[in-house]
Amino acid sequence: MNRRSKLCCVASLCVSVIAIGCGSVSKPDAATDMRDRKSRGNFTTRKTKARQPNSFIVDKQFSIATPADGYAWHFDRTMKALDAKGMIYSCTKRGSTSAMTLVMQKRAASSDKARIATIKGHYNGMIVSLRNAGFTDFKAKRPSLVAPIPDLVLYSIECRKPTREVIHLRCASVFGRNTYAIQSIAGSLQEADDFSRVIATFTELSTSSVK
Description:
The structure is a single chain. The chain has four helices and twelve strands; from the N terminus they run H-E-H-E-E-E-E-E-E-H-E-E-E-E-H-E. By secondary structure, the chain is of the alpha+beta class. It has one domain (3-204): Protein Transport Mog1p, Chain A. The strands form two sheets. The chain has an eight-stranded antiparallel sheet, sandwiched between helices. A four-stranded antiparallel sheet has the order 2-3-4-12. Helix 1 (3-22) runs antiparallel to helix 3 (112-132). Residues 1-11 and 23-50 have low confidence and may be disordered.
């Protein structure tokens, strides 16, 4: 398998890992996709004094920093889970097998019971997808399920690809007006730590914060 094929496989795994924890994913038809893009508004990368340089901003929804050295966020696809519409965004770099994904589900998980169920779905979905893809030797820092559940819950996983290379995953479940899953796959500890710092910049925007 060449490097380009490896990149596609890892990026696809990162998206499918999130999807299995949140629900089914479907590609929209052309008309639906156009309506979705209009409803999402402008989600291009912009610089703003109030946020991190090169923040990726989805108007009236959220902002998150962009990793340095050539990474870029982009809209990936729509999804539907638990009768809630969602959007998947990916962050990739040409020639790299590392990637980040962010799922925004348009539903709130306001109770501890709902948040715990969501966290379990995100974490267990990650483990199941990786095992099904042939990954082994798991070492994990599991997410806390002790109530009260905070708005941001972090967890991490290390494991080996079928080729025996070690990968590092840094992830978060975020709760607010919407529910979010942020997951990253990195080939080195340094890049995994960089992704952790990116996750820490995530901010849900108020509906009037972006004009």
